[in-house]
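task queued by scheduler; priority normal; single chain, no ligands, no partner chains; default sampling; output format set to structure tokens
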Amino acid sequence: MVVGSMVGAGVFSLPSRFAQETGVAGALIAWAVAGTGMLMLAFVFQTLAVRRPDLDAGVYAYAKAGFGEYLGFFSAFGYWASACVGNVTYWVLIMSTIGAIAPSLGDGDTVLSVVLSSVGLWLFFLLISRGVKEAAAINRIVTIAKVVPIIVFVVLALFYFEPRVFADNFAGADYAGSLFNQVKGTMLATVFVFLGVEGASVYSRHARRREDVGRATVLGFLSVFAIFASVTIVSYGIMPMSEIAELRQPSMAGVLEHAVGTWGEVFVSVGLIVSVLGAYLAWTLMAAEVLFVAAKDDDMPRFLKRSTAADVPVPALVMSTLLSQLFLIVTLFSDDAFNFALDLTSALTLIPFLLAAAFAVRIALARGPRGQGEGGEAERLGDRGGNRNGELLVAALATIYTAFLLYAAGLKFLLVSFIIYAPATVLFVMARREQGRRLFSPHELVVLAVSVAGAVLGIVALTLGWISL
């Protein structure tokens, strides 16, 4: 469900985001790196779904099983926070789209746009609180409806494709910098558009067969990769990249308008609104599910495990809506509301992804060369046969790729992530106190100290202007 929702949500913003960073050559390399890395992650989630069928809410559960409760908590919180911040990008996109005919909405970052977005945010809360099944049925409808504009865009862009323009865009504009910097600059954008590839593992408690979870993950990735890469590359054959970079969001509408006229912009804009509303619905469900399952495992305060007769975890849903509301307000203070929310969404997912990939490495290392368990460690981590060497290679590549993404994110988003992560420890403390347990073990105190130090440094950097939103 979530993979389908992501198709068409982030894609509408890709042309200008890529053109701001790279030319055709850099884009091709970036997609090759991102495609390979994310495919390795997809294989990791597929393997973990089979190796550890006892673990639900995948991303969070894998971190906890492999590295302890506190890092598992951080993984759950980071993944949840990324979903909430990601939802902010959708409202910014909607308001920016309507802003083309209503200037008072600007690029989705004016006071009026935030007020209207807030109204929509709470209306969706009321819709979802009526029942998960009802909301999911609506999501299936919009998933089908929104794919049409994307396919039409690709077909029309190929029809109006100009080889000369494409060739001029190949090396990139002067502002793009070196090829390495071009590729590095697009990494967070590629993470954002691939978010959802792990979605099946989060809902694994609802799956009839664990094999279906892994299959859905890989098939979802391949479909998303084909669509997103196509939209980006064909846009370079329509307009000079410097002009694409200046397009307002949704930039895909501006590209199609340049090719076919005003009706193209209208067509894409309508498709975006349908797409984004569907994505918002799915990710709100996702966010609530992560908090709910973490609370059931006693890693979040017990009030978050409450749900209605319709299977709606309302307290978790309220928390998710409140965090999205907070970041909607934060966009008023950002120089570029959409790109800031997009990059922060991606940065917040990197720790959960890194821990999941590293857990897969641990499982592979704990098993014998022929896939047989070697003692208590293998039995504890999970050993159900299979190709040990192949799984180790995939997990290692996924870990290296995710570590590279942390480097590509840069110091700014690392510090901002710490500002978000550190205060979340209050929820962890609440859960431990409810259970009458010691608050922190010695190694957990080290993690706490690092997160607090990072948060303090991040606040100082923002205050002194070393970094900005």
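post-processing summary
- Confidence is low (pLDDT under 50) at residues 1-8, 200-207, 370-380.
- The chain has 20 helices and no strands.
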